[in-house]
Every structure is written in C-alpha cells, then in structure tokens.
Amino acid sequence: MLKGFFNVPKAVNEPVKSYAPNSPEKAAVLAAYKKMWNETIDVPMYIGKEEIRTGNTKTMSAPHDHQHIVGTYHLAEKTHVDKAISSALEARTTWANLAWEQRAAIFLKAAELIAGPYRARINAATMIAQSKTIFQAEIDAACELIDFLRFNVEFMTQIYQDQPKSVSDVWNRVEYRPLEGFIYAITPFNFTAIAANLPASAALMGNTVVWKPSDSQVFSAKIIIDVFKEAGVPDGVINVVFGDPVMITDTVLAHPDFAGVHYTGSTFVFKEIWKKIGNNIHIYKTYPRIVGETGGKDFVMVHPSANVKQVVANTIRGAFEFQGQKCSAASRAYFPKSLWNNIKEEMGKELATIKMGSPEDFSNFVTAVIHEGSFNKLTSYIDQAKKDADAEVIFGGNYDKSKGYFIEPTVILTTNPKYATMETELFGPVLTVYVYEDANWSESLKLVDQTSEYALTGAIFSQDRYAIEEATIALQNSAGNFYINDKPTGAVVGMQPFGGARASGTNDKAGSMQNLLRWVSPRTIKETFVTPVDYRYPFLGE
C-alpha cells in the first residue's frame, strides 16, 4: 500500500496545563465547576438514535460532598440491553464498511474538541464525579484521553501498513476486518480516559459497541457522550446503557453475536465474566476476544544505595495521588533497614504538609474516596491494623464521612511481610511498609515477586547499576509496567503502553498497537495475475 495514503497527522502527547494562580485555564475550569455544581442534569441511555429515559433512576453526588446531588441517570431493563445489542448490530455493516480515514477523522475531531472547547467541562466533571484534583483531572480526562484518540489513529494506520510480501505475478494483501458481531465495553470509575478509550478504540477499528460505564462515573461519562456525538460518531456505533451490571452482562454474554469484551475493573468480576464466556462458548458465532485490565498490588522496592528524598517524594505521589485509587498506585513498600529512619523522618515531615478537602480548592493534594462502600472497606483495614500486634499505623489513620468520604493518607508499618495489607488490593490511600535487612536484598526481591497474585506495576529505587539489573531480572514477571527510580504510576500513551499479567489482566497494553490488534480479524487475500491452466507440474514429465 502507498505510504502517502496513510499521511495522517503525527500524534504528539498533549501538553499538561499548569492551572497556576491567575492562569486562564484555572479560571475556566473553576467557572465550569461552579456551573455544573449548581445544575442538576438528567442522563438518559443512548441507544441508536434514541435517548431513553425509563423513570427508574439513581442520583449522582460528589464523593467530597455526598449530600449534594448533581444529577440523575436512568437504569436499563433487559429489553433496553437487547435493544442496544440490536442497534449495534444494525449499525455494524455501514460503520465497518466506512473508509478508515472517515473513522479516523471522527476520533481526531473528538481529540480536538477535548483539547479545546470541552477541556474545562470534562475536567470539571471529573473533579465533581470522581473527586480528582485539577492536576489529576487534567492528566486523565484531558491529556490522556486526547493522547488515546490521537495515538490510536496513528497505531491504526501502522497496522494497516503491515502488509505481506508480493511478487510480480502475485499480489498478497491483508485486510484488517472488524470482529464479526459487537463489542461489550465495561469501564471503571477512576479514569475518564479509560471510560472513553475502551469503547472508542474498538469502534475506531470498525466495531460497534455496547458500553456500560461505572455507576460512579456517569456524570463525566455524559461529557464523553457529548463529545462523541459532536465529533460525528454515528447513531448505533456506541450504545450506552446504565444499570444492574450482572443483568446487563448476562444479557450481553448470552447473545450469539457477542464478539469481545473490553474491560477494566475488579479481578473477581473479570474472572466471572471469563467463566461465563466459557460456559456460553458453544452459542457464539466466533471465539470472543477477552481483553481486561484488572487489579494491582503495586510495589516500591528500595535498595540501600537509593536517594532518600527521591524515594519519599515518589512514594507519596505513587501511593496517595487520587487517594490511591489507581490500579497502578503504590500500596506496598520495601525499605532497607539502613535507610528506614531517614525515610520515616522525611516521609513524616512531608505527609504533615498534605492538605485534604474539596478539589475546588487547588491547595488540596488529596480529596475523598469514591463512595461509602470503599470508605468502609478501607477504614476496616486501618482499624484492624491499629489492633494487630504485627502492624502499626505510623502516619495518618484518621477518617471522616460526615460530609465526604475522607481518609487521611495512611502508612502502616508491619513486621510481617505477608500481612493482610501487603497482599490485599485496597484501592485507597493506604501504604504498607516492610523493613528488610540490607544483607537480604536478593532474598527480598523474591519476597516482592511472591507476595502478590497481581503483576501490574512496580518501582525500584537504586543508584547501583548492578542492583538495578538484578532487580529488573528478578522482578520480570512481577509488573507489566516496571519503573526505575520513578513512581509506579503515570504511564503515558505512546511512551509506556499500559497493562499487567498474572491476576492483573491480559496485558494487551492500552495505548499501543497490541490493543488495537485485538479488535480486528485479519483476512489474507492472494491475487494471481496469470493463473495456470494445466494441473501438471514439471516433475510429472517423462
């Protein structure tokens, strides 16, 4: 294929705005925040060309002020899920046959809408719905989502350019067809960018989608829907349903045209989905693609040669930004005994400066956890650590849900490397520390590798290149995203493709060609220009 035919705009990472005092972007996002805070929106389901309101609704509120209602959304019955599937299948033929550059143009336009007129709105919605600080909203809802949309187009064109060898009398080519059927996208609360990318990446490759956002993210999902509509995503390509996740999933997975699931969420739910797909395998027209990114119990491993200030700054960022509600968040740390006193002193000094409260106040570093269920789970582990003989809460440990679901950044010190909070994914602002003997560095690497069922992210800190190499080799199966002298969070599209193995998912690397390849089914076409007319080969001659 001609290279010039794939002359799409070169993808570049969206710059992060500063939101410094008196900056125009700060004024814009605060104005959008206040406007959205004082409105009450009504979010229908979007199925085909219809906006469906069932009257069976749930309310939406901000985690940092849970009594304040910002809107309602409508819940599906089984008939609505069936209708969404039918709508996706009806739209599939036209969408799949649309020229690739027309699909690309839609999502490139969506990126520009977010970069420009929608930036303040999508950031403000994410601040309200998910209680993200402005910086966390900016790097997620704006920058990462823009990057996903732009880079996916570039990755798509690279896939299409990957063609087999041809010779003078035979032209060989590969057609990257969308999957036969529809895709089911299930998205989490914690990243607005992920909520948009899971349905959009499959749609970009010519698939049609039934999308179920998290109940805790519907408010900002509405902005995604608005952007996609204005960008020109046709009716039926991405159908949006809300409601009982078990009912919706069971309905989707029972359909013979189910062709794949794009999932981010809990490990248990993903395994249950996989099991249901296996149980239903004989009813499907094709073998469904199963793509999932799930949990993490992400580590920080520190060598005695490490720089203490670097360790503390990056551990605090990795563990407590967005209240630890990232699947990549640092939640277990291994510190050498020789550095522990200095690390503890520096960490205590830094944690004492952290402010907590509403994201509308830009001086707050952390805000609230997502909902009461999360709050109750996290505080139960904190309370237990206060009682256990082999654990001690050395920083934080206080909490209050009277207005919002606020939990202080909490550090637990344990003498038991297999203590519950060293192994269990908590998804909150809780870091557990184990102090190892310096002489046990190599043995401690084995401990890091064997402690968790997850293998999503991990970080090592060292100024010793031999130790760095040893850890890189010893921990090769412990993290799909591995960081050297950096926090284990903050993967950037086009730079660090994201995903982990073991119980952390299928490691199909969102933000890369690997992920997009999961949403196509290649067809090889061989065209012979001068076709033989005699079956006989030369070896048959006398």
Structure description:
This protein is an alpha/beta fold and 542 residues long. The chain is 39% helix and 21% strand. Strands 14-17-18-13-12-20-21 form a seven-stranded mixed β-sheet, sandwiched between helices. A five-stranded parallel β-sheet has the order 9-8-7-10-11, sandwiched between helices. The longest helix has 28 residues, at 134-161. The radius of gyration is 25 Å and the shape is globular. It starts with 23 loop residues before the first helix and ends in a 14-residue tail after the last strand.
Characteristics:
seven-stranded mixed sheet, five-stranded parallel sheet, 23 strands, alpha/beta, 542 residues
Mean pLDDT: 97
Strand proportion, as a percent range, falls in: 15-25%
**Major sheet:** 7 strands, mixed
Principal-axes shape call: globular
Ends distance: 44 Å
Question: What is the number of beta strands?
Answer: 23
Assembly type: single chain
Rounded Rg:
25 Å
Helix content: 25-40%
Q: What is the topological layout?
A:
Blueprint: H1 24-37, E1 41-43, E2 45-47, E3 50-52, E4 57-62, E5 65-74, H2 78-97, H3 100-115, H4 119-130, H5 134-161, E6 170-178, E7 182-186, H6 192-204, E8 209-212, H7 218-231, E9 238-240, H8 245-253, E10 258-264, H9 267-279, E11 289-293, E12 298-302, H10 308-320, E13 330-336, H11 337-351, H12 372-387, E14 391-395, E15 399-400, E16 406-407, E17 410-414, H13 420-423, E18 430-436, H14 441-451, E19 454-455, E20 457-461, H15 465-474, E21 481-484, E22 501-502, H16 513-517, E23 520-528
Parallel strand pairs: 1-5, 7-8, 7-10, 8-9, 10-11, 12-13, 12-20, 13-18, 17-18, 20-21
Antiparallel strand pairs: 2-3, 4-5, 6-23, 14-17, 15-16, 19-22
